[in-house]
UniProtKB/TrEMBL annotation:
Pfam families: HSBP1 (PF06825). One of its GO terms (biological process) is cellular heat acclimation. Homohexamer. Associates with heptad repeats of HSF1 trimers and probably also HSF1 monomers, and with HSP70. Association with HSF1 trimers and HSP70 coincides with attenuation of heat shock response and the conversion of HSF1 trimer to monomer. Keywords: Coiled coil, Nucleus. GO terms for cellular component: cytosol; nucleus. The keyword Repeat does not apply. Negative regulator of the heat shock response. Negatively affects HSF1 DNA-binding activity. May have a role in the suppression of the activation of the stress response during the aging process. It comes from Oreochromis aureus (Israeli tilapia). This is Heat shock factor-binding protein 1. Its main location: nucleus.
Amino acid sequence: MQNGGGGLLQVQTLLQQMQDKFQTMSDQIIGRIDEMSTRIDDLEKNIADLMTQAGVEEIEATPEKAKEGQGS
């Protein structure tokens, strides 16, 4: 009977170790996703700033107005 109880304890220990590893990996993945989100936000802001400096906003607005004009 001791072997059965010891086996159960080993299984519980193994499951706890696996749960801890999964939690650690999950935390790392979430951290990396948050970091990527911040980088993407920064990149979008930099692109918007560059487009503003280059005057691209006016070019983007023109096709929309042209489409509206074609419908009239």
